[in-house]
Design a protein that fits this description.
The protein is mostly helical. Helix content is 69%, strand content 2%. α1 packs parallel to α10, α6 runs antiparallel to α11 and α9 packs parallel to α11.
């Protein structure tokens, strides 16, 4: 039991200090090679209220690939401890390694693949050529298609290789979806990715995601999925290291290399812990942010241009009505912690 606790406690501490340590090195190159957008989003697709509150000067002078800090820290920690167990095999070092085929291989591979795909997207933005660099909505469909393919592949792996086809309904029972588990998996992954729109204010996404992964670390630990718990802890520590430098004024933004990798990995972890239906509770700030965009679009389309919110996503609505960025971020952090705790309780008793 003591080793299990150490196995879960060491990764977040390790990734936090690795992240803090490597940030100056990466930051040097972020700024040296001007790894930021060369042009703001297309104003033809942006309403005046958004332009008024959005800091376009900061957007085109702040690196957008800060998510590299997160996944590089996790990789160094995971493989560092694994190599230690190989080079110096003892009962303790072997036990502390949390790179396992049964629990962490799939989420780790998802994180790497999603992060690299996001990095490619960031690179296109940084090059500043064509409509893509101005965040043209047409190109978002390409990402949705790619994530659908990723989700289908992983969902098939769950169904065919792991024999998973059921989801747990809290306070009720498990429901076997059969082959429909795969499209359900894809739907959850797409829904989770859609929450990446929360990455719009310095410090907002990092604080919210740290609470969410911390909650799943607790859930996995109680389920005796120690390797998953350690992996979630490692992600939490790395996100906090990123957050240390992302608090206003941000030294860099998370970018797609962070948000895409983390959100689709989050959906995988939710299924590995059989908590897919609890995910919307634990990640309620993310859900509310994504839902606000959907509601705004539907209202504008079917109510003759009328809007539900001054701006969407939701955090920009609060900006538009006069809340400071700091107030929005801190209140999101508070709510994220509360709902993460509620989700943990439901997972444990339901």
């Amino acid at each position: 039991m003591t080793l299990d606790i150490l196995k879960v406690v060491i990764p977040p501490v390790l990734t936090f200090f690795i992240g803090i340590g490597i940030t100056p090195i990466f930051t040097k190159y972020f700024y040296k090679y001007k790894m930021w957008k060369k042009a703001p989003r297309s104003e033809s697709n942006t309403i005046k209220e958004f332009i008024d509150i959005h800091n376009t000067t900061s957007e085109i002078s702040t690196p957008r690939v800060g998510g590299i800090i997160i996944w590089v820290s996790v990789l160094l920690a995971v493989f560092g401890i694994y190599l230690l167990s190989i080079i110096w095999p003892t009962d303790i070092t072997t036990k502390l390694s949390y790179l396992s085929r049964e629990q962490t291989l799939i989420p780790l591979a998802t994180l790497i693949f999603g992060a690299l795909l996001g990095l490619f997207d960031d690179a296109l933005q940084i090059l500043g050529k064509g409509d893509y660099a101005k965040d043209n909505p047409a190109y978002r469909k390409i990402k949705i298609l790619l994530i659908t393919i990723i989700g289908t592949a992983i969902g098939f792996w769950f169904y065919n290789k792991l024999g998973v086809s059921a989801i747990h309904v809290p306070f009720w029972k498990d429901i076997d979806l059969g082959i429909w588990f795969i499209p359900f998996f894809v739907m959850v992954m797409l829904a989770t990715f859609s929450t990446s729109v929360i990455d719009g204010i310095d410090g907002l996404a990092g604080g919210v995601l740290a609470s969410i992964f911390g909650a799943f670390a607790v859930i996995a630990f109680v389920q005796n999925q120690i390797d998953i718990s350690a992996f979630c802890g490692a992600l939490t520590g790395a996100i906090l290291a990123f957050l240390w430098f992302n608090i206003p004024p941000a030294r860099f933004y998370m970018g797609e290399t962070g948000m895409l990798g983390l959100t689709i990995t989050l959906s995988v972890i939710a299924f590995l812990t059989n908590s897919s239906l609890i995910l919307p509770i634990i990640a309620l700030p993310l859900v509310a942010t994504s839902f606000s965009v959907i509601l705004q679009v539907l209202s504008y389309k079917y109510r003759n241009g009328k809007r539900v919110f001054r701006l969407a996503p939701l955090h920009h609505h609060f900006q538009a009505i006069g809340w400071s960025r700091e107030k929005i971020v801190m209140r999101y952090w508070v709510l994220s912690t509360v709902f993460a705790a509620v989700g943990v309780v439901i997972a444990l008793v339901g």
